[in-house]
């Protein structure tokens, strides 16, 4: 394994599992080293296989290394150090920890509010104690403000699992639709206007469509996933596909500004597309997510999609007089 491959392996493990320690292998002697990180993902300790401390790292708030020379490899917030320049490579741009600024402007168009977005060189909203810049695009929010580090990792794991399901999907209509959904969601903080809001939802809702994107309830997602004996991020991937499918439909003619379809038939069709997406994601991830059960036949899967869509239609329309429920009943 090359040094570069070793570094990439470390970063993948840190990003995917948020472990406090991972194993690195050097190319020369295959020496085992354990890399320990703090709550921001910064490497603070390296130990050997006998638990001896090999290296300890201390940082200033904006990432300047205090107690030893910088070396190539993972460092501040898990990003790659460049020993030759003293910079951190944060995937979209290079960052200088000595001045706490990026060296190039943010490639994403700024929001008009708040005004701090117009400083195109800022790092982590000028609050490195609370926020990190993991390099993604969708905006992660919590009630009252931006996601903290823990929330950002949760949102990232949800989206990355949906992306993994896309990569596993065979070519076809489902993959094309999921590709459009993921393109709309984007990656963290790209300023595309799509927001994943982590919040507490009522009535056993795991996710809901919003004007800016979607709401997701991590607590309920984790509880339901535990009952299904699957990981929360796998269940959430299907929810992102489901709500994202609704979002795509809401952009089409026939939907009003509250995302309500024009007729009862269109409501049923949008639910069928949404549950079909959830089922397709569950199928490629080989999980039971309520709409897909591993080993079920295509006919059984279609029946499960129909029943789920019908239940959603009835929950929304029974006893109600509105145009979005008119002219059709499943």
TrEMBL record:
Teneurin-like YD-shell domain segment(s): 28-128
Repeat keyword on record: yes
Stretch forming the signal peptide: 1-29
Keywords, in A-Z order: Repeat, Signal
Domain of life: Bacteria
One Pfam family in the UniProt entry: TEN_YD-shell
NCBIfam families: Rhs_assc_core (TIGR03696)
Protein name, UniProt field: Teneurin-like YD-shell domain-containing protein
Source organism (scientific name): Xanthomonas sacchari
UniProt lineage: Bacteria, Pseudomonadati, Pseudomonadota, Gammaproteobacteria, Lysobacterales
């Amino acid at each position: 394994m090359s040094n570069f491959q070793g570094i990439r392996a470390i970063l993948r493990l840190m990003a995917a599992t948020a472990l406090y320690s991972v194993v690195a292998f050097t190319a020369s002697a295959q020496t085992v080293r354990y890399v320990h990180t703090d709550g921001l993902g910064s490497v603070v300790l390296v130990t050997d296989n006998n638990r001896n401390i090999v290296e300890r790292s201390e940082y200033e708030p904006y990432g300047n290394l205090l107690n030893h020379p910088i070396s190539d490899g993972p460092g501040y917030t898990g990003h790659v150090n460049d020993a030759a320049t003293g910079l951190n490579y944060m995937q979209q741009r290079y960052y200088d920890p000595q001045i706490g600024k990026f060296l190039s402007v943010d490639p994403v168009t700024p929001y008009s509010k708040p005004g701090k977005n117009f400083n195109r060189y800022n790092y982590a909203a000028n609050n490195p104690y609370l926020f990190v810049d993991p390099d993604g695009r969708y905006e992660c929010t919590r009630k009252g403000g931006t996601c903290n580090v823990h929330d950002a990792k949760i949102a990232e794991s949800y989206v990355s699992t949906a992306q993994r399901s896309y990569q596993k999907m065979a070519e076809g209509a489902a993959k094309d639709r999921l590709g459009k959904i993921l393109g709309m969601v984007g990656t963290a903080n790209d300023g595309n206007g799509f927001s994943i809001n982590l919040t507490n939802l009522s009535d056993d809702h795991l996710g809901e469509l919003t004007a800016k994107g979607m709401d997701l309830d991590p607590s309920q997602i984790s509880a339901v996933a535990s009952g299904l004996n699957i990981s929360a991020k796998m269940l959430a991937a299907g929810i992102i596909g489901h709500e994202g499918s609704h979002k795509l439909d809401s952009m089409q003619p026939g939907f009003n500004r509250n995302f309500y379809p024009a007729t009862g038939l269109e409501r049923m069709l949008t639910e069928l597309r949404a549950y079909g997406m959830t089922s397709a994601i569950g199928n490629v991830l080989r999980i039971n997510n309520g709409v897909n059960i591993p080993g079920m036949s295509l006919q059984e899967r279609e029946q499960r999609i129909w029943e789920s869509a019908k239940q959603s239609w009835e929950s929304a329309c029974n006893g109600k007089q509105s145009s979005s429920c008119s002219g059709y009943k499943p």
